[in-house]
Write a structure and sequence with these properties.
mainly beta, 7 helices, 18 strands
């Protein structure tokens, strides 16, 4: 049992696998109705290679060489994450709630699943190499934290007919929730392996019911598109978007907290290091570690996403356009992601592009995409992680698509 919890943390993000995704775009039209669907599925790590993650999830022989190649990429604190988003937006520009004709009515629905984690190099090494590396030394776990949230949203709002800027108020359903942090943690094993010291100041909270709805909340989504003067192109459009700015109340959460300094020796140490699933007594070990448990109602701040950048102008006569920006999740273990790319119009209907990004749950990435803009329909597909799509030496995988119909 000594590796079970850590193994679950490392494997959970990859079991759920594969935004900048396709670049945002804007076109002016006099349509009555618009339907838009966007989806992206992204996993990323700053240190775990795909060859390692694939064996962890699908099974196979995890050789020392494979483990070493991932271990060599680890720093003191490392990141991994998974982001799945599916969004449907419907707008009726002819329905005007006010006397003026600037705004139409919109409705949106979506599903989002987020996993974000930061963990120490020692936690990885202890989980996959055992305690032999720490004989006469300490393994440190401080700074490790994990967040996981599944939720759906449905909202109504207003959309500007010309700029396509919008604002909506959403009801949010929480389906699953987990959060944990190790504020201070270490494990020491004596040189003769007969004594051990375990220090842990940590907490975790999670839903435990199988119900579809664990709680409800409210969130504000808004998108502001605006025009600026821009070099040779004459003008350019920028976008500021915020999603899931809100709170939720979860009806029942199981909480665990511990702040203990423990010493083990003799048979106690053997029992701690060699416990297996059949002999493991959860209640007994919770008592031994001094873990406090409780069941509470929990208010949470939703993981708001913020993105700002230059977007594509589909009405532009320019054959090549740039796009760039920054994306962040302030509440997650997520480094602000900086991205930039080039979009090229191969023909009147076909666009192709390439992008690069740095940050998020990982490091440097390069991606490609293709999009068709024909008559009243748009369709695009791409990846932000070209290396991950073709090589086991990548550090994640990603796929994204969008579809838009204008009538």
């Amino acid at each position: 049992m000594k590796k079970v919890l850590i193994l679950l943390v490392f494997s959970s993000a990859f079991l759920l696998r594969a935004q900048i995704s396709l670049p945002e775009s804007l076109s002016f039209d006099t349509s009555r109705f618009m339907l838009s669907f966007r989806a992206s599925h992204d996993i990323q790590s700053s240190a775990l290679r795909n060859e390692f993650a694939s064996i962890l999830v699908k099974g196979g022989t995890l050789t020392d060489e494979i483990k070493d190649r991932s271990l060599n990429k680890h720093k003191e604190i490392n990141r991994l994450g998974r982001e799945f988003t599916a969004e449907l937006l419907v707008a009726d520009y002819k329905l005007t709630p006010f006397k003026g004709k600037r705004y139409g009515i919109m409705a949106e629905a979506g599903y989002q699943s987020l996993f974000a984690g930061a963990y120490s190099k020692d936690a990885f090494q202890l989980a996959f190499y055992g305690n032999a590396s720490y004989v006469g030394d300490s393994a440190k776990f401080s700074g490790s934290e994990f967040q996981y949230l599944d939720f759906q949203n449905f909202g109504l709002g207003l959309i500007n007919k010309r700029t396509k800027s919008y604002v909506s108020l959403n009801v949010v359903n929480i389906q699953n929730y987990f959060e944990a942090e190790i504020r201070d943690g270490s494990f020491y094993l004596s040189p003769d392996s007969t004594q051990a010291a375990f220090k842990l100041d940590a907490w975790s909270k999670n839903t435990y019911s199988s119900n579809f709805s664990q709680g409800l909340g409210v969130a504000l989504n808004f998108c502001i598109n605006f025009e600026v003067d821009w070099r040779k192109e004459g003008k350019a459009f920028f976008q500021f978007k915020v999603k899931n700015l809100g709170v939720a109340k979860i009806r029942s959460v199981q909480s665990y907290s511990v702040d203990s300094n423990l010493d083990f020796g003799g048979f106690q140490l053997d029992d701690f290091l060699e416990n297996d699933a059949e002999s493991f007594d959860e209640v007994s070990w919770l008592d031994t570690l001094g873990v406090k448990t409780d069941t509470v109602q929990q208010f949470i701040v939703l993981p708001a996403m913020m993105q700002f950048g230059k977007i594509l102008d589909l009405n532009s006569t320019q054959q090549t356009q740039s796009f760039f920006g920054i994306k962040l999740y302030p509440r997650l273990s997520y480094v602000p992601k900086i991205y930039l790319g080039i979009d090229h119009k191969l023909s009147e209907d076909l666009h192709v592009g390439a992008s690069c990004s740095y940050g998020g749950f990982g490091l440097l990435r390069a991606g490609v995409y293709a999009a068709i803009h024909k008559n009243n329909y748009d369709f695009g597909i791409g990846t932000e992680d070209l290396l991950g799509a073709v090589s086991k030496n990548g550090f994640g995988q990603m796929v994204c698509l969008n579809f838009k119909c204008i009538l």
